[in-house]
What we know:
alpha/beta; two-stranded antiparallel ribbon
Amino acid sequence: MAKTKKSRNAKRVLLKISGEALMGDLGYGIDPAVNDSLASQIKEVHKDGVQIAVVIGGGNIFRGLSAATEGMDRSTADYMGMLATMLNGLALQDALERVGVDTRVVTAIEMKELAEPYIRRRAIRHLDKNRVVIFVCGTGNPYFTTDTAAALRATEIGADMILKATKVDGVYSKDPVKYKDARRFSKLSYIDVVKKKLKVMDATAVTLCMDNNLPIVVFNIRKKGNIRRAVKGEKIGTVIS
């Protein structure tokens, strides 16, 4: 197993939030209580002096892959999914700024009236100025997931780690909701994730992290304070390295 960077020394992290995490127990859309809780947790870490970038999904509003399986053109479906991430990014920006955190939404698809276009050096400059940066619209290309976008952006900005926020407390051998005998892993190698076909991140994202020795911490976002615990290197969730 490759040596993991010491997460307690993390100065810059990328937080990957799925769209599904934003909807909480709702069947669709954004749960305001969940959105506000996320903003509070991010603020807590931000106050510690950690630079935070966020990549956000759109599955709570539209899932491109699901639409493609029902006959829609895959590229069109993926672009619609990317637009859904913009809605989530603006909602999180609003929640963060209401608690006093300076935030910038940065998009891979140009929408000048809503957000800044993605320029790597400008995004890093925002982080250096202690602004939270929210990356939306994935990579700007169809056929790539927001997990891949998270791995790509984390690598580009020189993040120390990816924090993968989920609804469960780590990576399991199988779905813990359906199977009581599901086993949680405390540590995994990148190769283990690919070989076991564990549904953490897609293979492209995991391979990109492996090539750049970028650790991934998978944890339960529903438990308040877990973002801070993950950054500090406390033993929560699953560490992939």
